């Protein structure tokens, strides 16, 4: 019998699966709920459904179940953000809350860096206006 080939472990599994992504997004939305710039951008009074969409998207992106696309279809994130004004200030506020959330996970450095680098790049990519915020 040949030796079993080690299976590549997904990032999703390596960081602890669904529970870790739920913790990440919970901490992130605790910050968003208090944020005077970001909170008014969310159309629904209850942030729960938005938190669920972000959780499922991130789980899928990192190799977990494809539940996000099963319910929402292709992510097309830039298009889905088009109705919202995402300028540098919104991006920086979003990233500040995400930083707290990522740090709270206590991941090993390599995983921490992979997650943070992705989120930072994704946030820069989501910017759709360079106009300074009005009032
Ligand atoms: C750069 C600053 C960002 C701002 C201000 C922002 C804001 C928003 C807002 C207001 C919504 C609508 C809430 C909802 O109904 O779901 C939303 C949705 C969403 N955002 Fe962002 N976002 C940002 C960056 C990102 C990034 C970097 C990602 C991914 C890494 C992301 C992933 C998502 C997802 C998955 C949804 C739900 C899409 C759907 O299925 O409808 N966002 N975002």
TrEMBL record:
The similarity annotation says: Belongs to the truncated hemoglobin family. Group II subfamily.
- Specify the protein name: Hemoglobin
Q: Which InterPro entries match?
A: GlbO/GLB3-like, Globin-like_sf, Globin/Proto, Hemoglobin_trunc
Has the keyword Heme been applied to this entry? Answer: yes
A Pfam family it matches: Bac_globin
CDD domains the UniProt entry points to: TrHb2_Mt-trHbO-like_O
One GO MF term, please? oxygen carrier activity
Alphabetically sorted, this entry's keywords are: Heme, Iron, Metal-binding, Transport
Work out whether the entry's keyword set contains Ligase. no
């Amino acid at each position: 019998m040949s030796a079993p080939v080690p299976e590549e472990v997904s990032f999703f599994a390596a960081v602890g699966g669904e529970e870790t992504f739920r913790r990440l997004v919970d901490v992130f939305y605790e910050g968003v709920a208090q944020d005077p710039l970001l909170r008014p951008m969310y159309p629904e009074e209850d942030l729960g459904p938005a938190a669920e969409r972000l959780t499922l998207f991130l789980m899928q992106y990192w190799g977990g179940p494809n539940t996000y696309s099963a319910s929402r279809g292709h992510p097309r994130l830039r298009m889905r953000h088009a109705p919202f004004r995402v300028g540098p200030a919104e991006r920086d506020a979003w990233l500040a809350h995400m930083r707290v959330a990522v740090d709270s996970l206590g991941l090993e450095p390599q995983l921490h860096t992979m997650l943070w680098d992705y989120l930072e790049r994704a946030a820069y990519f989501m910017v759709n206006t360079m106009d300074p915020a009005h009032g």
